[in-house]
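Repro:
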Amino acid sequence: MSNAKRYNPQLEKISGKVRGIGLYLLPLPLALMTIAALWQGDFSGVLMGALEFSLFTLAAIVARHGFRLEQEYTRRRIARAPRPPWKSLAATTLGIATGITAWFSGGYGIGSSALFGIGAFISFHLLYGLDPRRDKSGNVSLGVTTKEVVEMLDKAEVKLAALEQAAARIHEPDYVRSLRRIVANTRTIVEGIEKDPADLARSRKFLNTHLAGILRVTNSYLRVQDGEPGDELKQGFGTLLNDFERTVQDHQAELLENDRFDLDVQIKVLETQLNKEGIY
């Protein structure tokens, strides 16, 4: 029986949110020491405690950012490796924070403190791993670069996230459902581009112009919806949403038809080759 684990997107999402939370707990004793130093009037102790606490907190913030980028990199079929290597930056910051704390607050010598810092750096990488180094090119075809695909997908995701946020602020339930369907169907198109980057050329206008247009109109509607926009404007926005839903569906059908055509061409080419070789 295979030991492979089934991929669970919801579990991965939750795991990504809590990963590295423990790093924020590391400097809590320093916070208590700093408060005690302030109570005792030890201002040099307060300054050093604040510096050490800030370095540990900075390491946690940078690490969490690196974890989010790594999770996105893992999720996508086509992605650029995170630059700069945020996890390594976090490990370096953690090592420096540990060394400084051991030297000034722990009373260790500079050599021992340096070893503590190196140990923290290595421990971080053993626990959380190294940063991804290679770009994921997937099935990028001729005429399309990995950079172009990634940039287009990133821009599309920003627009879709903005549409989701806008949908959460719309008052009319029908419009909310329509926007959510638009987002879901457009994400299907984006996922299709990841699987077959050849679809990028066919989807460029849709993602750059049409998707940007519906986002712009939706944001404009949000600005006036609290000021009694009137029935005519409401109906006009609803009609626009319905029209755009059909546009998304038509584009999905167009991509599917192109895929079928490409498959038909490949089958005919293979049949011709097999006939020449006397196999078919």
